[in-house]
């Protein structure tokens, strides 16, 4: 397995930038998700890595070897990369066994070694009993397992997955997530996984690159994206909650900066000396009768074990969790705590545009 490195990587189509100076390093054996709204450049980054497109500028290295850029271009067949598409891309007239054996045939691996490796890949993906079936005799989830086994069999340097679960129904998606997790644990493969489904990205990946308009906005572990978003776009796109403008009061507390948020002084964590916004997650809101910030309940949804409330507070929509049901129109007191603040003066416009386009 190998590390992947993107340096100042750009791609334009007819003058329009699809990727804009991407810099990122993915460690050998790491599971990384590319997450972002439609058209943000996820698939373009994957296709450049696979070698289906030439970069307009910048470099791609796989395991230290430059495969694109600086006057070099290594063809897709020579990059030793496995690819899993949402459409499975299986050979319809070959059996499961022959589909999985195909990459080994192309590499002229002797028959006995071929059979052993295919058997191992089928067993690892739970397909041992299906070796002689044709793709048309398999379910969607089973076909996607064949595509995974076909990647696994030639021990690629990295595996690229382009929305591999997009064609499956919800319950199957959850069980296939387990298959990907197991596949990653057993193979230690470097994996780059494109999705626009944030729950999939947060559940599966070691780190998530959140993209918008051809740029990586933040590249971090799921819990960091949630707790410490870098800007309005990430705060609004990942996880539940609100993004609200904030003004520094000039005071600092030992626990953080004191910011004026919705008219209240709130101690907030921040990496920026002069933040402009805060991310308010549901966990940062306590409902208290005596709290000075008043909010009106606009929606109440039972989630099992708790209710999700939407609240209108000073014309902002906040999200809170409550053990008790609340009546629509009811007024509640809101106490804010443990907020994360960041500097992004133009961010709300970017976020609104991205959410409108999505
Ligand atoms: N072959 C192409 N020719 C022209 N424009 C392209 C081409 N491929 C992609 N684009 C444009 O580049 C931008 C990024 O596209 P890309 O497919 O990478 O987005 P994406 O994030 O994968 O979106 P989706 O989630 O909808 O698949 C889009 O504006 C798209 O229209």
What can you tell me about this protein's structure?
- Keywords: ATP-binding, Cell membrane, Membrane, Nucleotide-binding, Translocase, Transport.
- One of its GO terms (molecular function) is ATP binding.
- Residues 4-238 form the ABC transporter domain.
- One of its GO terms (cellular component) is ATP-binding cassette (ABC) transporter complex, substrate-binding subunit-containing.
- With 358 residues, the protein is an alpha+beta fold.
- Helix content is 27%, strand content 37%.
- It folds into 2 domains: 4-227, P-loop containing nucleotide triphosphate hydrolases (Rossmann fold, 3-Layer(aba) Sandwich), CATH 3.40.50; 232-357, OB fold (Dihydrolipoamide Acetyltransferase, E2P), CATH 2.40.50.
- The protein contains 9 helices and 21 strands.
- α2 (96-106) runs parallel beside α4, α3 (111-124) packs across α4 and α4 (140-152) runs parallel beside α5.
- The model has no long low-confidence stretch (mean pLDDT 90).
- The site of adenosine-5'-triphosphate has 11 residues, from α1.
The gyration radius over C-alpha positions equals: 24 Å
Average pLDDT works out at 90
Termini, distance in Å? 34 Å
Total number of beta strands = 21
Q: Give the oligomeric state.
A: single chain
CATH fourth-tier homologous superfamily of the largest domain:
P-loop containing nucleotide triphosphate hydrolases
Q: What is the H/E string?
A: EEEHEEEEHHHEHEHEEHHEEEEEEEEEEH
Overall morphology: globular
Which structural class matches the secondary elements? alpha+beta
In spatial order, strands of the major sheet run 7-8-9-3-10-11
Main β-sheet description: 6 strands, mixed
Strand content: 35-45%
CATH topology of the largest domain: Rossmann fold
Share in helix: 25-40%
Number of domains: 2
């Amino acid at each position: 397995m190998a590390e992947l490195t993107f340096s100042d990587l750009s791609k334009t189509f007819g003058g329009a930038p699809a990727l804009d100076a991407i810099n990122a390093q993915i460690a050998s054996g790491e599971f990384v998700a590319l997450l972002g709204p439609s058209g943000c450049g996820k698939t373009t980054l994957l296709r450049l890595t696979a070698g289906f497109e030439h970069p307009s500028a910048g470099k791609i290295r796989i395991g230290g070897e430059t495969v694109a850029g600086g006057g070099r271009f290594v063809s897709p067949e020579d990059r030793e990369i496995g690819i899993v598409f949402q459409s499975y891309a299986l050979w319809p007239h070959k059996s499961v066994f022959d589909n999985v054996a195909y990459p080994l045939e192309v590499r002229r691996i002797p028959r006995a070694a071929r059979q052993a490796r295919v058997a191992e890949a089928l067993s690892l993906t739970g397909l041992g009993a299906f070796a002689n079936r044709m793709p048309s005799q398999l379910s969607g989830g089973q076909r996607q397992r064949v595509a995974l086994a076909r990647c696994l069999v030639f021990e690629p340097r990295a595996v690229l997955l382009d929305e591999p679960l997009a064609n499956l129904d919800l319950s199957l998606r959850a069980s296939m997530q387990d298959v990907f997790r197991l596949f990653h644990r057993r193979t230690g493969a470097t994996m780059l996984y494109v999705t626009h489904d944030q729950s999939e990205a947060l559940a599966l990946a070691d780190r998530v690159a959140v993209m918008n308009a051809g740029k990586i906005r933040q590249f971090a572990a799921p819990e960091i994206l949630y707790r410490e978003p870098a800007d309005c776009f990430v705060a609004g796109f990942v996880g539940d909650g609100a993004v609200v403008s904030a003004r520094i009061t000039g005071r600092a507390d030992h626990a953080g900066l004191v910011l004026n948020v919705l008219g209240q002084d709130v101690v907030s964590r921040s990496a920026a000396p002069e933040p402009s916004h805060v991310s308010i997650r549901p966990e940062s809101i306590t409902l208290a009768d005596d709290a000075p910030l008043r909010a009106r309940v606009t929606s109440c949804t039972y989630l099992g074990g708790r209710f999700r409330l939407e609240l209108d507070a000073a014309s902002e929509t906040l999200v809170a969790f409550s053990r008790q049901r609340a009546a629509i129109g009811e007024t509640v007191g809101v106490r804010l705590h443990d907020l994360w603040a960041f500097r992004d003066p133009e961010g709300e416009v970017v976020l609104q545009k991205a959410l409108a386009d999505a």
